[in-house]
């Protein structure tokens, strides 16, 4: 009897001073009910990268040290170059995101299904997590990214109290949050940019996940919210955007404007232009 080859999955984690979260992140990966072929950690200039040394000794982990302040986009693009040959699925996962044991198995089962071949990427219910308390914070982090008619992009449910009766149905998404972004490799290959970039490095950080989502959709791929996929995310940035450094707010506003220009929708462009001008 011939054994059928299992689809392969690699996980890319971009780190920067991530010592507080990475051990728990990797523990959750090692508890997966489906085997993960390779874990690629790309460090973008941690002040003290010695916390990564123990992981270099593990057979299925490759640690790559990029230039300092390479950023999220370049870090993931470096990770893509380290994928195993003929990799079927790529999971972009933040170091402060903790996936449930069945996450990879359910994601692959959905994407392998004959009726779901038009889907290029999936995500699920991501709840907040308080690392200091060592427990979930009781609120949603994201259940998919959507856009208001006037142009504001938002993570659905973010900050709202968790309700087990909400978001129980599979549905298509406008975009997927980059913290927990599970992709079909074939879909990523179809949306590749110049210099073999998957994430547009000109974004550096912020809205790069929306940009990739839109490129996948333009290539004919659908994005799915699957309620059976669950995870937790600490989310490091300030919820009150006014308290973020101006440089970061400017980067976010500029990138949002770039995304709206791609869509060529006048009202969202005007909305993001005003927002950018206000920060500028």
Topology:
Elements: E1 9-15, H1 22-30, E2 38-43, E3 61-65, H2 71-81, E4 89-93, E5 97-99, H3 103-112, E6 119-130, E7 135-142, E8 145-147, E9 153-155, E10 171-172, E11 180-184, H4 185-190, H5 208-218, E12 222-233, H6 246-263, H7 266-279
Parallel strand pairs: 1-2, 1-4, 2-3, 6-12
Antiparallel strand pairs: 4-11, 5-12, 6-7, 6-11, 8-9, 10-12
Helix pairs in contact: 6-7
Give the structure's gist in a few sentences:
With 280 residues, this protein is α/β, with parallel strands linked by helices. The protein has helices spanning 22-30, 71-81, 103-112, 185-190, 208-218, 246-263, 266-279; strands spanning 9-15, 38-43, 61-65, 89-93, 97-99, 119-130, 135-142, 145-147, 153-155, 171-172, 180-184, 222-233.
Strand content: 25-35%
Principal-axes shape call: globular
Number of strands: 12
Coarse structural class: alpha/beta
* Separate helix tally: 7
State Rg: 18 Å
Low-pLDDT residue intervals, each spanning 5 or more residues = none
Helix content: 25-40%
Give the averaged pLDDT, no decimals.
93
Major sheet summary line? 10 strands, mixed
Please trace the helix and strand order, writing H or E for each element.
Answer: EHEEHEEHEEEEEEHHEHH
Straight-line distance between termini: 66 Å
Textual characterization of the structure:
The protein is of the alpha/beta class and 280 residues long. It is 28% helix and 25% strand. The strands form two sheets. Strands 1, 2, 3, 4, 5, 6, 7, 10, 11 and 12 form a ten-stranded mixed beta sheet that branches. Helix 6 (246-263) packs antiparallel against helix 7 (266-279). The longest helix has 18 residues, at 246-263.
């Amino acid at each position: 009897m011939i054994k059928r080859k299992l689809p392969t999955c690699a996980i890319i984690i971009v780190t920067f001073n991530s010592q507080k979260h990475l051990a728990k992140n990797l523990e959750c990966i090692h508890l997966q009910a489906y085997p993960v072929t390779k874990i690629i950690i790309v460090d973008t200039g941690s002040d003290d990268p010695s916390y990564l040394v123990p992981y270099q000794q593990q057979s299925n982990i490759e640690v790559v040290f990029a230039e300092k302040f390479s950023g999220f986009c370049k870090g993931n693009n470096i990770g893509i170059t380290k994928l195993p040959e003929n990799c079927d699925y790529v999971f972009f996962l933040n170091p402060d995101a903790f996936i449930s044991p069945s996450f990879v198995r359910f994601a692959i089962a959905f994407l392998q299904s004959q009726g779901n071949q038009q889907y290029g990427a999936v995500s699920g219910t991501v709840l907040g997590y308080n690392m200091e308390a060592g427990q979930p914070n009781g609120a949603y982090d994201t259940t998919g990214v959507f856009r208001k008619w006037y142009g504001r992009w938002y993570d659905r449910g973010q900050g709202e109290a968790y309700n087990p009766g909400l978001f129980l149905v599979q549905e298509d998404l406008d975009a997927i949050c980059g913290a927990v972004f599970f992709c079909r490799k074939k879909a990523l290959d179809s949306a590749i940019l110049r210099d073999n970039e998957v994430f547009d490095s000109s974004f550096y950080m912020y809205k790069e996940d929306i940009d990739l989502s839109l490129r996948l959709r333009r290539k004919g791929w659908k994005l799915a919210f699957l309620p059976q996929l669950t995870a937790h995310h600490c989310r490091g940035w300030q919820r009150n955007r006014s308290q973020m450094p101006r440089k970061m707010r400017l980067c976010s506003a500029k990138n949002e404007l770039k995304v709206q220009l791609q869509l060529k929708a006048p009202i969202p462009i005007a909305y993001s232009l005003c927002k950018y001008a206000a920060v500028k």
